[in-house]
Amino acid sequence: MAIVVAISIGTKEEIRKYSRVNGGRLSGFCLPRSGFVQLYFSDDIMAEYREVLSRDRFRRYIPQELVNGFLEELKTVGVLVEPQEKIDVIKADPSDNMFLECAVAANADFLITGNLRHFPSKAFRGTSIVTPEEFLQIVALHIA
What we know:
This protein is an alpha/beta fold. It has one domain: 3-Layer(aba) Sandwich (Rossmann fold), CATH 3.40.50. Helix content is 46%, strand content 15%. It has seven helices and six strands. A hairpin with a 2-residue loop joins strand 5 (123-124) and strand 6. The chain is globular.
């Protein structure tokens, strides 16, 4: 199962909740390590994650060494793709088009995001666009 993960971390409350639930770790790579799914990312996505997670509003909740460790882990478990096509369908936040570009380049089955409102529909060129919760429900059906 090929997936692109669009990480959406928008509020301090979400950071606090995530840190409490995950013991302060920024890692969720158990499924890719199992071989059940394959993560894909692009250089643009990696740069976006680094920039967003390094913003002042997150630094007090996520130390830079955790951000660096998370990004290194993503490089280890994920596959770098080089999108060949520029996509311009997301108008609300055009930078989110990079996730669709990556999904198309990877021929991804799923694009997982907590930010569905910016995406044009629940699917794009054969890639289902789902929330993390929806994805976990799908996975549960396949491994049950």
